[in-house]
Amino acid sequence: EGDELVWKRKNIGVTYQAKVSAKGIITSDGKVFKTPSGAARHYCNNSINGWLVWKVVRLNRKLNQIIQSVE
Questions:
Q1: Residue-wise pLDDT tens digits, 19-67
Q2: How far apart are CA 52 and CA 41, in angstroms?
Q3: Cβ-based burial of 50 (10 A; exposed 0-12, middle 13-18, buried ≥19)
Q4: Distances in whole angstroms, Cα of residue 55 to Cα of each of 15, 22, 58, 63
Q5: Whole-prediction pTM value?
Q6: How far, in Å, CA of 42 to CA of 47, rounded?
Q7: Is there a contact between 39 and 29 (Cβ–Cβ < 8 Å)?
Q8: Are residues 39 and 33 in contact, defined by beta-carbon separation less than 8 angstroms?
């Protein structure tokens, strides 16, 4: 449906995956979030800026980089 997202947490050796859809960000375990930060918080149980951690696989760029290039 939409772009695949990936968040590689090299410090703990874990990679998270999600997908963009019309409903929001869908994590690999099927949970839906309205924001990238909500999806990131789901995985780390902490406040985090999802725009800085999620990367769009197709573009190999983080969400914040994509937004900045459009502005």
A1: 999 999 999 999 999 999 999 999 998 999 999 999 999 999 999 999 8
A2: 12
A3: buried
A4: 11, 18, 9, 6
A5: 0.89
A6: 9
A7: no
A8: yes
